[in-house]
Amino acid sequence: MKPLPTDVPWAFEGQGSAWVESPLQFLSAVEAYTAHRLSTQGCILLRQDAPGLPEVHAALRRLFPAAPPAALARRPTRPRSTDFTWVVGDAFSGRVQRMLLRAPRCRLVVVDDGLAVWHLLRLLTAPAPRPLLRAGARRTPARLALGKAAARVLRRAAQEGRLTVFTVLPLPPGLAGATADAGIRVIRHGFPLLRALPAQDPPAERRILLGTALVNDGLVRLPEYLGWLDRRLAQGPVAYRPHRREDPRVLERLAADPRARLVRTGLPAELELRRLGAGYAVRGLPSTALVSLGLLARGASVGADAVPAHWWTDAAPAGLREDLAATADLINGEGRGAGA
Fold first, then answer.
1. Pairing mode of beta strands 163-167, 107-111
2. What fold does the segment set 10-193 form as a domain?
3. Is the pLDDT of residue 227 over 90?
4. Spelled out in words, what is the top-level CATH class assigned to the domain 199-334?
5. Statement: residue 90 has pLDDT above 70
6. Of 34, 44, 187, 336, which is most buried, counting CB atoms within 10 Å of its CB?
7. Has residue 41 got a pLDDT over 70?
8. Confidence band for 4, pLDDT divided at 50, 70 and 90
C-alpha cells in the first residue's frame, strides 16, 4: 500500500474534509462519510503526530478499499466556503477552535471522541455560552477566551441548522431535549460499516480485558486498579489490550504475569474485536470502546465494572465520575451484563 500523502491540495478535499486525532475519531468519520448522510465526498486528514493513525487507516483500507481518501496533516485546514462540510473529532482541541474562528458559516459535524461528546453538548446547551474546555483542563485566561469564542461559533451554527453530532452514544435523560431545542442535529449510529466487514480471526483466549487511561491520567489510584486486575486474572488467563495511553506500571506488572497476554497491535478494539462470537467475554472499566463492542460483538458477552468511589483521586471531576457510572449502566444493559 502506498504511503499516505501529505500537504493535500484543496482540489483533493472536494466539498468537505475531516480532521481526526485518534483511532475512534477516524473510524467515526469513515462511518459518517460512508453513510452518505453528512457528506458524499471528502478527505480525512489524520493528525501527523498522532500515534497509530496511519496503521489504523491501512488496516481499514485492507478490509474496505472504498474508504474515503486520507492524508497526513500537521494541522486542520480552513473551510473555504459556506458550501463545505467540515468534520472534526475533538471540539475541545485548541487547533480546531482557532480554525473555527476563521471558518465561514459552513456545515459542521462533530464525530465521537468518547464521553467528551456528552460534556460538549451540555456546554453548548447551557443557558449562556460557556467556554469549551475539557473537564479538568487548565483554565488560563487565554484558553478561556478561546473556548468561549468557539462556543459562540458552534452555538450560532446550531441556531442556523448547520451543526450535527454523529455518535454511537445515546444521550442521557434531559440532554436529548435540550440538544434538540438548541438546534443541534444528533445522529446515533451503530457502526454499520464495521459490522458488515469480514470477521477477524478470534483471539485464542476466551476472556479479554480492555485497558484504561484513567490511571495514567491521574484519575484512578494505581493500587486499586492493580488489585482489580489480580482479581480478574485469578479467574483464568486473559488477553489484555492496553489503552493507547496505558500507565507503564500497569504494563510492567502484566508483562511479568503468565496469566496475561499483552496484545499490542496498535489497532482499536472496535476494529479487531468486531463480530466476536459466542463464548467470548470482554470486560474493562467503563469506556466508549465497550459501548461500541456491545453493538459490534453481538455474539460475545460485553460488560463493564463500575469504578468504586474509593478508587478515584481528587483530580477526577464529579461530572466524569457520574458519566462513567452511567456508561457502565449502558454497557451492562446493551452489552448483556458485567458478570464473568
1. parallel
2. Rossmann fold (3.40.50)
3. yes
4. alpha beta
5. yes
6. 44
7. no
8. low
pLDDT at 43 over 90: no
**Could you report the per-residue pLDDT of 137-183, keeping only the tens digit for each?**
788 999 999 999 999 999 999 999 999 999 999 998 889 999 999 99
| Closest listed residue to residue 124, CA positions, set 185, 182, 168 | 182
Rounded alpha-carbon distances, angstroms, from residue 121 to 39, 126, 153, 165, 290: 22, 9, 14, 9, 21
* Separation of alpha carbons 257 and 233, rounded Å: 9
Q: Where in the chain is the domain with CATH 3.40.50?
A: 10-193, 199-334
Distance from C-alpha of 318 to C-alpha of 312, rounded to nearest angstrom: 10
Burial classification of residue 281, based on how many CB atoms lie within 10 Å of its CB (0-12 exposed, 13-18 middle, 19 or more buried): buried
Distance CA 29, CA 26 (A): 5
When mean pLDDT is compared across 34-43, 134-143, 264-273, 300-309, the lowest value belongs to 34-43
Statement: residue 206 has pLDDT above 60: yes
